[in-house]
Amino acid sequence: MSAQQKAIRNIAIIAHVDHGKTTLVDSLLAQSGIFRDNEAVPTCVMDSNDLERERGITILSKNTAVTYNDTRINIVDTPGHADFGGEVERVLGMVDGCLLIVDANEGPMPQTRFVLKKALEQGLRPIVFVNKIDRARVDPETAVDKVLDLFLELGADDDQCDFPYLFGSGLGGFAKPDMKTESDTMRPLFDAILRHVPPPVGDADKPLQLQITTLDYSDFLGRIIIGRVHNGVIKQGQNAALIKDDGSVKKGRISKLLGFEGLQRVEIAEACAGDLVAVAGFDDVNIGETIACPDEPKALPLIKVDEPTLQMTFVVNDSPFAGKEGKFVTSRQVRDRLQRELLTNVALRVEDTDSPDRFAVSGRGELHLGILIETMRREGYEFQVSQPQVIFRTIDGTPCEPVETLVMDVPEAAVGSCIEKLGTRKAEMQNMETSADGRTQLEFVVPSRGLIGFRGEFIRATRGEGIMSHSFFEYRPMTGDFDTRRNGVLIAFEEGTATFYALKNAEDRGQFFISPGTKVYKGMIIGENNRPQDLEINVCKSKQLTNMRSAGAEELDTLQSPVQMTLERALEYIGPGEMLEVTPESIRLRKLPAKKMAKR
Ligand SMILES: Nc1nc2c(ncn2[C@@H]2O[C@H](COP(=O)(O)OP(=O)(O)OP(=O)(O)O)[C@@H](O)[C@H]2O)c(=O)[nH]1
Ligand SMILES: [Mg+2]
Asked: Does the beta carbon of 17 lie inside 6 Å of ligand 1?
């Protein structure tokens, strides 16, 4: 091993969603002197795109590097949400160690299991970091026990089960080997990384092999490849070969070679086996392909990218209000935008259909597709999407469907109704534990189909006090049909502007999604009926027509506040034969006319 390699560590940060990965990276960056003394460290600086910052979640994994005791630590922050699990799996292939973060309070959660399983499969020996111990009522030692149980359950070998662990707080910026020790820095964690993560293997004297793990794009450099140099040395400006997934070889040139340094990507002249780099110069590339030495091009084993589990149809907007709010509305514009997304959104698939106005878009889950929709709408696009459909698959001749693990934490009073609701959705209970304070943890395996639209019911059943989280588990033979039908909807009867008077009159019909002043059209869904059937109502009637009451009475009345249909809610709510209209300004649900319904 070269001296250069000895001074490198590659580590991925993995955890369940919100357990504090990105915040911990903030601390590592801050304490490694990346920021000047007087410079304020923004929170979650790695969550660099707008949606990430707004939602406080990580969507794309990102590389950074810090230097500690003359060793460069390449750090990859990964997303915790289950929809992006495939990303985590790929990233684990380019590192030599990982830091498994577990919330001291919640302990291991479904995605902890998923990411740990992937890490163990890669033969990594994780360091466990029990996080957020600054909070009240934490039980960090129990969390460690539970993590050990999880290691055992996942079949970790003896060496892996003897994992190093630390306690600390990413937010507080400290780590310590046990709860008794005082610490106000991350030093113990840095030291643990140097000690327990092995320096990268790889032979700098062999011909170049770099594996493409992540894709990025910049208007300035074009396609950017991020990956690990497995063997050899890569130099800026050198000739290289790209070995495609079908085995064909394309010659090209490394036009830019970039290394990571804190928040920046900096140009470097060369990098050797074991290092993580970003490369420009090859355009038509896919995940898992190899950049190799042009004289002796040898491919590394391909990495598999997770297949999509959920599909939606994107349709050019043809509602009565079409084209009023969006900048980009034509099928050509929508199609080009979707194609562009494919350049970096690895788990996404876009297929043309028999109609030029419709595209089948498949992804890893509601969040994955929801983020694409939100991004497009912010860019000025207007279109419609259909109800998400689970993607079935035939495995060994048997029709199969995706199932997920679901963990929830609910007040005791809601346990019965949650179990009942999940029962009708063909969920199987795996575990149930009630803690001293009456909160109950329930674990299920449930078909993904059964989870569509479940969150709303769950929130109602637990009066907003429940926490649930689910993640893809595996494909299993289809369970039978089941009914997840919701109540019927209230539909506007004619085009116009909704009035207070009409809404007030129809208030006992159900729950509205609109308020007085909202413009509606015939067929637009404006609320949920209290009954199972759909119901057309006139919400534009003005008072003069039928007014029997004295003037002034209205001002004393109030309307129940409407349900705010956010994009996420609408995606969960939308039923068959309905479309969700998405524009930069509005989210509207509509019922398709019966003849169109048959077509879609
Ligand atoms: N009290 C406390 N809160 C923390 C700590 N670390 C993170 N948080 C909070 O937990 C929330 C989630 O933190 P993130 O760092 O975004 O979590 P993440 O694991 O990167 O989340 P995803 O990338 O979306 O999976 C934020 O509100 C943080 O402020 C900690 O050590 N103590
Ligand atoms: Mg994060």
From this structure: yes
